[in-house]
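$ ./design --mode recover --in tokens.txt
reading tokens...
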């Protein structure tokens, strides 16, 4: 090689070594910076731990007062009011611990059905209320022919699902005998056919089903 080429080779080697030295220096500097940052954060973390420790200590000091525990008394607990002390504050008078009589279940605030219950099956006023629902239902069914004639299908379906939502329960509540239950099923089939044909927009079939619903309801009411 010529002296000029040798000088260039030595110059390149020197440049590469210098670059590697700079990279090593940067890595060391970065590592030292991270260590310094971690050291700087340590006091802040310690101060936070100290603050949380003070808060926990304050809560622990208040806890015995909230639990109303006496000095030397063992901790009171209750598992669903069935095991342990049902009068402990954790229960809050739940699971029937504040009831004079036996409750329906540990999860209920109501007592078992008895002679003193407010609701008694078969009350006359309940039957009268259900009959009043059927009387109103008959008035609602009387509106259907006009809706069907005008092809107001939404009014037909609204009438069958608005007030008459209560009709099915009233019919089932009044149907006691086998004959009454059979007539009830005939009525249910008629109003269901009316709703279906209104949905399908079949005018003649809907009109026939609506007429059947009136007659079957009258037959059921007559059987009571």
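writing sequence...
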């Amino acid at each position: 090689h010529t002296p000029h080429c040798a000088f260039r080779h030595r110059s390149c080697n020197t440049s590469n070594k210098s670059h590697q030295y700079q990279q090593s220096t940067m890595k060391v500097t970065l590592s030292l910076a991270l260590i310094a940052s971690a050291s700087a954060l340590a006091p802040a973390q310690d101060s936070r731990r100290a603050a949380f420790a003070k808060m926990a200590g304050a809560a622990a000091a208040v806890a015995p007062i909230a639990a109303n525990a006496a000095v030397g008394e063992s901790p009171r607990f209750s598992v669903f009011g069935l095991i342990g002390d049902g009068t402990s504050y954790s229960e809050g008078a739940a699971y029937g611990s504040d009831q004079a009589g036996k409750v329906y279940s540990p999860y209920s605030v109501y007592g078992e059905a008895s002679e003193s219950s407010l609701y008694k099956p078969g009350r006359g006023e309940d039957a009268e209320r259900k009959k009043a629902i059927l009387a109103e239902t008959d008035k609602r069914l009387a509106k259907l022919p006009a809706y069907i004639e005008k092809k107001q299908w939404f009014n037909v379906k609204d009438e069958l699902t608005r007030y008459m939502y209560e009709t099915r329960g009233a019919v089932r509540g009044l149907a006691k005998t086998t004959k009454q239950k059979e007539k009830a099923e005939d009525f249910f089939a008629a109003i269901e056919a009316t709703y279906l044909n209104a949905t399908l927009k079949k005018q003649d079939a809907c009109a026939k089903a609506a007429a059947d619903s009136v007659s079957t309801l009258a037959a059921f009411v007559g059987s009571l």
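exit 0
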